[in-house]
Design a protein that fits this description.
Layout (H helix, E strand, L loop, with lengths): L2 H27 L3 H30 L8 H33 L5
Helix pairs in contact: 1-2, 1-3, 2-3
Amino acid sequence: MDHTEAIFQLILHGGNARSLAMEAIALAKNKDMSGAQQALDRAADELTKAHHNQTALIQKEVAGDKLELSMLLIHAQDHLMNAMTIKDLAAEFVEMYGQIHQSKGAGV
């Protein structure tokens, strides 16, 4: 995989993870706690894929295959870091909605 392809994979998997995390929040808000957890799990899988691509880029650079700093690379890293943050916050929201629904007797 060349650098450009790896960068686009970071963007792809980061975007997927972010979307799934947001989906998890919406599902939890609508009392679908099982669906919310599944979306969080899928988001984690997407982040793992992105991390593997990121690690491959780092390993190439360590091996002497220098990666040119570009706006695309910066965008990919920014996209990934935001996805990681949103996924972590989504997990908190899912837990919070679960507690709210349970306290209201909605059953979780």
